[in-house]
Amino acid sequence: MPENSRHLVGHGDVAVKRPPFASAEEGNGGATLVAPARVRIPAVDVERVPFLEVRDRETWEVVAVIELLSPCNKYAGPDREQFLGKRGQLLGSSVHYVEIDLLRGGPRMPLENLPPCDYYAMVSRTESRPEAEIWPVALRAALPTIPIPLRAGRADARVDLQEVLHRAYESGAYEDYIYRGQAQPRLSAEDTAWAREFVPVAP
Fold first, then answer.
1. How far is CA 27 from CA 17, 21, 24, 31, in A?
2. What pTM did the predictor assign?
3. How much is the pLDDT for 203?
């Protein structure tokens, strides 16, 4: 082909070339495939932390995300850092965000002006950020009914957290094993006496 009729169409990312020569052991077929050594990959424990998404029925777009915090979200470590990154992305998006912390232990999520409480529920509406609604809950108080924001122009959905907790407790038969030993973190003497009115607490 004449030199002036050649055109460069691009460079390949990978090229396969015939070797310039083959040894006697390789013969005409190229290099002999050598069986690889074998290794074992250690099993990795993966903790799946579920969350809820509220999606538009027609467009299937995410409208709100509901997170129920778990111990791995709260205690220092890579899981907390990963969760905080996800939380920051949601709070910077056009999605409503609902965060429910029913764990007394562990450091709280970053929240300014959070009143003293044992639990809380937080609702962050896209149109109100950085302000958010908060329901601080004391140990002896009933859990609140909270709003779940939907599309603009639609009324909020309502979730009775106390009713949800009762149903989960009854269906999961938690009374058979969650009240063994002392509560963690430990309750005060007054709260321990109050709790013993409802469930026996082992010493």
1. 17, 10, 5, 8
2. 0.72
3. 45
